[in-house]
Design brief:
14 strands; homodimer; seven-stranded parallel beta sheet
Chain lengths: 331, 331
């Protein structure tokens, strides 16, 4: 095993960046060498003593000091630009999660990474990420079948924002929750045909402004097209104190199921179920990013170049253990 | 994509071999080119028309006709010999599942495969196999935590055999069943310390011979050391007809859970749960073997040689889809 720790950098210091900082502490073969920000570096206080904070402008001059950069920006505007740019300088891992734009993002990062001789993983996390892996393993192993992804229980930022835009709403949070009957039908091997709206219900916690018309707010929510009208939606009005106390968490999770059939008459049922119950979405996502940073460091040592996804990475590359120990302890 | 189908051979035609035969039919990019048996070939009737049955003695002369051989013998006596021997002739996949002997089996197959320039996967199936993968992913992503494997509900052959050896027993079947309270404690993130016996209970269905002393049989079962004495064990006496009607199935399954913590004070809980509910243990295991045969064929084309396990295989290699399609459809 390599005795030099893997030198990691973090670009972007929000919830995800802090999660990466904490996850690195849990991995003895890694060290956090620096955090990069667009803010004034002296204004950023890390959770860790002794780690320097740099302005992102210094990134091009520090390529010898880091083995892997973990990009902790957002998918909407940061990563589409940062992904290809930093791929020309560093081995990277990002959590790009705009599903529809993955092929385009991959192509751009791939070209930059190949030109620079870097290994750059995109779309790492739990969905895309671990859920994607389970969709792949499921359909490869049970080719005749159906795959189901359920999300939640967890906060949907987009739906919470939509409620907040309604007149009379002070603040709000929306939880996406899997429909238990739909989940159970899949688990029984009934292979139901289910749309996203049949798999999820929506529960809203709303703090109204003083004197606001609650009935009107509720009606506006439950009839909002695309966001709520097609779903079973419940609205709870609560006071600010309750909201702050009970709805500040970032728990999330979900399920990937593969239901398939085998046998002489293709009537033997099998169900593979993968689920996550996450106390903190950003902390867990960070932990996935850090494990894949290890894989990137190993691939870079082998001289591999180009963009990669979780589909390309041999599972052993995620572990600090030797191949011998993995076979002995975990196989 | 390769337009030539992957040419598969089956060595050993029992439950597992028949499962492989059926699984190949579900994969359009594969073809079953032959089945090899130690019996007289003309005495073996396949489920598939037009596929030749050969005696195993002809195997050394047919190395140009097969891309991958799937070894469907048992782990006790067949695979320790067949694994290294056939690795000197063919790319292979086996389901060797004697956990303690995996390092030795790996070393022998690895040497033979490297000498012959072949790719040979060992210990493919669900445990070892898919469960191993989930143990690895779980501990790599949540390094501070605990991993739990529960088996069942499913028949344990060893325990059923032990009951059958008791005087007065005509036949018997023993089901290993996860203890629901233990599972739920893990799911709640309580990270309990659990021995195998605290995770499983044992339910026995026994057909007694006429005039046998049922109380004595029951006592012999529940007090049998190692097998039952340390477990919560239930014994049901049933008649032969009920036994044949209700206990001929080969359903199995189980759970792998990883419970781990992250965060500033390492107190945020996360639980990853992977579970299988299998209508037929051999049919599902066969489906896993066949998916990994595809990976072996791809690796062989790349010129890779040596023994491999599920830990070494990039997930994309299991799928017939292109990397582009995987990213677009499943990521």
């Amino acid at each position: 095993m390599n005795t030099q720790p893997i030198r990691i950098g973090i670009i972007g210091y929000g919830n995800l960046g802090r999660g990466v900082e904490l996850a690195i502490k849990q991995n003895a073969d890694m060290v956090l060498k620096g955090v990069f920000t667009r803010r004034a570096p002296e204004s950023v206080r890390l959770l860790t003593e002794g780690v320097p904070v740099y302005h992102v402008d210094t990134l091009p001059s520090m390529t010898d000091d880091f083995d892997v950069m973990i990009l902790c920006g957002g998918s909407a505007t940061d990563l589409p630009v940062q992904g290809p740019f930093y791929a020309s300088l560093y081995n990277t891992v990002d959590s790009f999660d705009t599903h529809a734009n993955i092929p385009d993002h991959f192509a751009k990062v791939d070209q930059a990474a190949k030109n620079a001789g870097k290994v750059c993983m995109i779309s790492v996390g739990w969905d895309p990420g671990l859920f994607s892996l389970n969709r792949l393993y499921g359909e490869a192993i049970l080719p005749q079948g159906a795959t189901y992804t359920f999300w939640g229980k967890g906060v949907s930022q987009g739906h919470s924002d939509a409620i907040r835009r309604i007149e009379g709403v002070e603040t709000a949070k929306q939880y996406t929750i899997p429909v238990e009957e739909a989940l159970d039908s899949v688990r029984r091997g009934e292979a139901p045909v289910l749309s996203t709206r049949e798999k999820h219900r929506r529960v809203c916690f709303v703090v109204a402004k003083e004197g606001a018309d609650l009935a009107k707010i509720e009606k506006e929510i439950v009839t909002m097209p695309n966001y709520f009208a097609e779903y079973e939606t419940t609205v709870h009005f609560i006071d600010r104190e309750t909201f702050d106390r009970e709805h500040g968490g970032m728990a999330h999770g979900g399920f990937v199921l593969r239901s398939g059939k085998t046998g002489v008459n293709v009537e033997t049922n099998h169900v593979i179920e993968y689920s996550l119950r996450l106390g903190s979405n950003p902390e867990f996502t960070s932990s996935v990013l850090v494990a894949y940073a290890r894989a990137v460091a190993k691939l870079a040592k082998e001289g591999v170049a180009g963009a990669k996804t979780v589909f390309d990475i041999p599972p052993a590359y995620l572990s600090p253990k030797s191949a011998e120990d993995l076979r002995k302890e975990l196989l």
